[in-house]
Amino acid sequence: MTLPLASRRLASRRQFLTQSAAAASALALGAYVNPAAAQESKSPSERLRIAAVGTTGRAGGNLTDLSSQDIVALADVDAELLDKGAAKFPEARKYRDFRVMLEKEADKIDAVLVSPPDHTHAPAAAMAMRLGKHCYCEKPLTHTVFEARTLANLAKEKKLVTQMGNQIHAGDNYRRVVELLQAGAIGPVKEAHVWVTAQYTGAEFNTGTPTPKNLDWDLWLGPAVERPYSTGVHPFNWRKFWDYGTGALGDFGCHFLDLVHWGLDLRAPTAVSATGPKFDPVSCPEWCEATYEYPAREKMPAVTVHWYDSGRQPELARTLKIGDKPLGDVFKGAQLFVGSEGMLVSDYGRHVLLPEGKFADFKKPEPTIPRSIGHHAEWVQAIKTSGPTTCNFDYAGALTEAVLLGTVAYRSGERIEWNAQDLKIPNSPSAEALLHKEYRKGWTL
User: Fold this and answer.
1) Are 288 and 307 in contact (CB under 8 A)?
2) Taking the model in full, what pTM does it have?
């Protein structure tokens, strides 16, 4: 929904942004928005002033997708990467420490893009939002469950426009799958299986090598435990380390479990269990399988969701066929919804109703979910026109909490019972301790 942009009175940039943020927040909560307030929002032709934390890799992709706006400031702990990213935005002011950037640029920016390694997402996003800035943050939204809840609460409290970077949510295929599920094409769904090929494991600290001159290792560590510089961590393999990443489940869960949450209207599981190789306090596991138990929702039964990463697949992926090939050979990574009247398998770009013979003449419902203007464009437009975002921190925070509870269950070795309202694991104090972590001195949430 986008409210009409009628004649506007001139107002300051800050007034524009404050009013549009309040309206967008109200829309996200389903509240009525006064059209007069929308008339005070930013003109679509007015460019946002954006500061970015992180400059290359996924951050670089995000910057490219936001390049229609004014990228006015950039922060990166690696001088070489900072220069590389800044080459595309020569007018942007450069910083090594995002805290310094946000403090100095606070009155010169409207919004902040957060794309550093996972362990730094929450401190950067929280600081930006406490300064009243709209925020786009990469997935997983945070490194811990408690951080995810904190960011969601901040976004609501500050009435800010937010979006998590699970970009595939904006794709047409996911929308068509959701429509099929909501139309009851396969009947009530009580079971879903999700599998991916991604694998992040084999991490180990290799110290004794001097820190590269281009890298500020202390800033890179951010809130994490203080350690001497280690090779094989920056700029990509941090995903393998518990101190900085969350393995394949954390990295890809917000993409693949997103469709399950959206299509089945899920939010918080009541219990989670996980298995895998013996827990290593340094390295994420060679593989992980997790089981999420969700309660019944309005007109929907309770559902059990099974996760498999690192190339592992459910038995159904071997026994079901698409054409003459096993399902798992055709869909190397997928979501499989098991309904009372059939099944639906999907990935990022395609979906198939099963068994194929039964659905050969099936007429799919007319599209009801509008085509996205683009994941980043949604965020920009929402700031300017008082519209909603599809992966705001309320939705994305709950999704991230669920994903990360799988890592908590694996690390604790227990089936955890989850009290989402109170952020408690009543059956396991040791697992509950994994919902957050202690920050190093100088770093806050």
Assistant:
1) yes
2) 0.90
